[in-house]
Write a structure and sequence with these properties.
Elements (H helix, E strand, L loop, with lengths): L2 H17 L2 H7 E8 L5 E2 L1 H9 L3 E16 L2 E14 L2 E16 L2 E11 L3
Parallel strand pairs: 1-6
Antiparallel strand pairs: 1-2, 3-4, 4-5, 5-6
Helix pairs in contact: 1-2
Amino acid sequence: MDEKGIRELEEQLRQAMLSSDVKALDALLADDLSFVDATGKVWTKADDLNGHRYGMQRIDRLDVEEQSIRVYGAFAVTVTRVALSGTFAGAPFAGSLRYTRTWGETAGGWRVAAAQCGLVGF
């Protein structure tokens, strides 16, 4: 996998998040995913999929502002700054976040194995 391929996977992930496409998210996330959100809560793959499946989280806007990608053989690291808005548990949110994702080559293809996001200060 090269940088272009990882960039394409990141775009597939962005589109899946925007449309709450649980099938696409299932294919892009490792079964043992660990995702640390901006509050420090750790989410599993099931947590993330269920948030989209049952409408707990809705993302209306997810614009990539900058992104760096480093590929190291069977894994890659992305650091992405986004502007996003939507609702979580019915409450609106908007802001700028920076995501760090570790993509790994698995038997099922390249998937996100670990991720973390944090608020970007103004």
